[in-house]
Design a protein that fits this description.
The chain is an alpha/beta fold. The chain has eight helices and 13 strands. It has a seven-stranded mixed β-sheet, with helices on both faces. The chain has a four-stranded antiparallel β-sheet with strand order 1-2-3-9. It has a two-stranded antiparallel sheet with strand order 11-12. Helix 2 crosses helix 3. It is globular.
Length: 284
């Protein structure tokens, strides 16, 4: 068995996941944490149900979004705060895994013209929703792992994307080719070496059977940056604003059948189990 991220074979089994036949492994070479076996068609998950109403009484484990649309205003404000330091003048921006366009709306609100915004998502439902909200953006429903990234971009974002792909290294290599000199890559992804993952083990809320199939840690970003001639400009743990409703839904990963409540009060939630990383391509 080889690491899907770097092709190396020294893998260490970490733990078996709950309610599935899958196991969580660690690559001793690149720092990736793959999950085996990989489902045959993981992209089939991303239907309308994934974005609206993925949690149901008979399936208490968290997967997908309780309601992406109900949380989009909270997410948009959170994105604006996160992206603001990296938006300067006229930029060409690509959002990989753009969902229904919330992050692209945040860039638009920061002054980037819609015509300079592009988005790719594997979900046809999500892209159709995004087109309604940002009609002048360049949006397409594609599996980014098997398609070409057209154009040269000043900023490419991958928010909660790397953990969804079998080979995150191949995806970053493709992203680098589409990045203009001096351009930046912003990544947000769960940290498999976080204190929360170690404490909660197989009940860590980021273990979504069939959905999250390869995690990467901080050392992986150093490894990929060196191999692709990138600079790591920022690497930190970050939280996010969420509604009480969203936070309670996440608790169901730790306390099965925890009751849900539709409270819209906003919390600043930071379990320090998510990485926020900025990589930069040299000018020359």
């Amino acid at each position: 068995m080889e690491c899907p991220s770097c092709g190396s074979s020294p893998l260490e089994r970490v733990l078996d996941l709950i309610d599935s036949q899958t196991s969580f492994w660690r690559c001793l070479t690149c720092g990736a944490y793959p999950v085996f076996p990989v489902p045959p068609n993981p992209t089939d998950l991303y239907t309308e149900k994934y974005f609206e109403g993925a949690i149901c009484p008979e399936s208490p484990r968290y997967s997908g979004y309780l309601s992406y649309d109900r949380d989009r205003e909270v997410m948009r404000c959170d994105f604006i705060e996160s992206f603001k330091p990296f938006v300067h003048g006229v930029m060409r921006i690509l959002d990989i895994g753009c969902a229904t366009g919330t992050a692209l709306e945040a860039f638009r609100d920061l002054g980037v013209p819609e015509e300079h915004l592009s988005g790719i998502d594997v979900s046809e439902y999500a892209i159709e929703e995004a087109k309604r909200r940002i009609p002048r953006a360049q949006l397409r429903a594609e599996d980014v792992t098997s398609s070409d990234l057209r154009g040269q971009y000043d900023l490419i974002v991958l928010l909660d994307v790397l953990e969804h792909v079998k080979n995150p290294t191949a995806l970053i290599k493709k992203v680098v080719q589409a990045l203009a000199p001096g351009g930046k890559i912003i990544v947000s992804t769960p940290d498999p070496e976080s204190f929360a993952r170690r404490i909660f083990g197989a009940r860590w809320s980021e273990f979504h059977a069939g959905e999250h199939i390869c995690f990467v840690n901080a050392s992986w970003f150093s490894w990929i940056a060196e191999s692709q001639n990138l600079r790591v400009r920022m690497l930190r743990h970050h939280g996010k604003r969420v509604t009480v409703e969203h936070a309670l839904s996440r608790l169901r990963a730790y306390i099965p059948f925890f009751p849900l409540a539709r409270f819209r009060r906003i919390l600043n939630l930071n379990m320090r189990d998510r990485l926020f990383v900025v990589l930069e391509k040299p000018e020359v």
